[in-house]
Amino acid sequence: MRLLAALLATSLIAAPALAGPDFAPAVEADYAAHLEKLFIDFHKNPELSFKETRTAAIMAKELRAVGGIEVTEKVGGTGVVGVMRNGSGPVVLVRADMDGLPLKEDSGVPWPSAVTQVDIDGVTKPVMHACGHDVHITAMIGTARQLAKMKDRWKGTIVFVVQPAEERIGGARKMLEDGLYTRFPKPDFAVAFHVTAGIPTGRLALEPGISSSSSDSVDITIHGVGTHGASPHQGKDPIVMGAEIVMALQTLVSREIAPLKPGVVTVGSFHSGFKHNIISDKADLQLTVRSDDEDTRKKLLEGIKRIAANVGRMNGLPEDRLPTVRVGFESTPVTLNDPELTRRVRGAFTSSFGENIMFFEEREGMGAEDFAYFIQKDLKVPGAYFVVGGTPQADIDAAKNGGKPVPAHHSPFFRIDPKPSVTLGTQAMTVAVLDLLKK
Fold first, then answer.
1. Known binding-site residue numbers for Mn(2+)
2. From the annotation, which residues make up the binding site?
3. pLDDT tens, 96-148?
4. Closest to 284 measured CA to CA, from 292, 297, 273, 300
5. What is the CATH number of the domain that holds 35?
6. Do 33 and 163 sit in the same domain of this protein?
7. For the chain, what is the domain count?
8. DSSP H/E element including 80
9. Do the Cβ atoms of 364 and 161 come closer than 8 Å?
């Protein structure tokens, strides 16, 4: 079935959407008059996770300028919440993330970022919008501006959530902990989108079930015994233990997880020592762990703790000096699109844009998304997380034919085509909200 859907989508790649919402010209005009300048400003001035003070202030100002929106700042740190009421009816949460990434931009766009910022770890870093969050927040303002002019078409409440720190998968949880669902109207539905370089502009993707994997950052600290490099027998080498841990971790997915259950354990950082002939007394490893279900996630995290501890024991470390494993500081569960809400939003998209607007996107990796926190089962808030194409079809075709590759997200070369991305994102989100709040 998935292969059939993929083949069908491929056959439709070059086909244009058959229709568009009646307010599409208004969105195009708003982009030319207002949204383009806003996008460029966001792109040139990105900010790191939990440091998005300038961006948050602009978003609050823009939401207030729409009129009829109650705006609250500093929710969960730098988060912004705007509540637009229009009589009795359901409550829809519309979310956009706003943080950038610690990368030096080399995308070739005419308005690149050249800013640096002191990160929450105290280190000054270059900053770039290398994942399209500038599109998300610009489209949120576009959506708010359109919905404010169409109050005769909908009834209910819209909660605009400008979320910090998605890249550190912590902002959504911080906003919930700061009373997002108690201080403000609790949503009946939650919707969000991500612009994606891997699918063509003018196309949308939305499927029920798993949208994004879970993610857990893990820190392992190995407490060795330092000594001279010429006398290794007098110490306990944390680099050797770290290497043993790295290799043993590779067996977790291959030998402890069922073959049809996906999982990833990646060691992204390994630091120890300062000089050729000194055996260090400490090594630090940083991992990312991904899964598509809670049982697999639990098994992987428990396995990491078990391997780290027992490698220490195997090397003769005392119990009070075993490697320590830190988890839970950057984590998010699996993002699951509610089947019924997905069916409804897809129906709204195809009714407004035509059947050919939908693109089937095969998952090729295990990217994560902390929008999952807003739609956990215990909160009873169904969610739909859709995708907006960000790369012209011609560029995708050229890459497939041996031309310049389409830059990946989180790359210094990342770029999307802003006008079709922002305008379609605005139109699609407006269509979704109008359907969920229709009279």
1. 131, 133, 167, 194, 410
2. 131, 133, 167, 194, 410
3. 999 999 999 999 999 999 999 999 999 999 999 999 999 999 999 999 999 99
4. 273
5. 3.40.630.10
6. yes
7. 2
8. strand 79-86
9. no
Residue 61 and residue 198 in one domain: yes
User: Which residue from 328, 407, 387 is spatially nearest to 192, judged by alpha carbons?
Assistant: 387
The CATH number covering residue 295 comes to 3.30.70.360
What's residue 364's pLDDT? 79
End-to-end CA distance of the chain: 36
CA dihedral 27, 32, 35, 41 (to 10 degrees): 160
In this prediction, residue 439 carries a pLDDT of 87
- pLDDT of 362 above 90: no
Note the pTM of the prediction, 2 decimals.
Answer: 0.91
Region 8-22: mean pLDDT is 54
CA 339 to chain centre: 21
Q: Give the pLDDT band (50/70/90) at residue 2.
A: very low
Q: How many CB atoms lie within 10 A of CB 112?
A: 17
pLDDT tens-place string over residues 407-422:
999 999 999 999 999 9
With contact defined as beta carbons under 8 Å apart, do 105 and 113 qualify? yes
Amino acid letter for position 261 = K
b (16+ CB within 10 A) / e for 34-65:
bbbebbbebbbbbbbbbbbebbbebbbebbee
Say yes or no: 58 and 114 in one domain: yes
Q: 193 and 426 in contact (C-beta within 8 Å)?
A: no
Mean pLDDT for 26-30 is: 98
The distance between the two most distant Cα atoms of the chain, rounded to a whole number of Å, is: 81
- End position of a domain, from candidates 292, 326, 360: 326
The DSSP code for 408 is P
| 405 phi-psi bin (left φ>0, alpha ψ -120 to 50, beta other) | beta
**What range does the domain containing 233 cover?**
214-326
Query: Which of 281, 309, 326 is at the close of a domain?
Result: 326
Say how many residues make up the chain: 439
Bridge partner list, 389 = 196
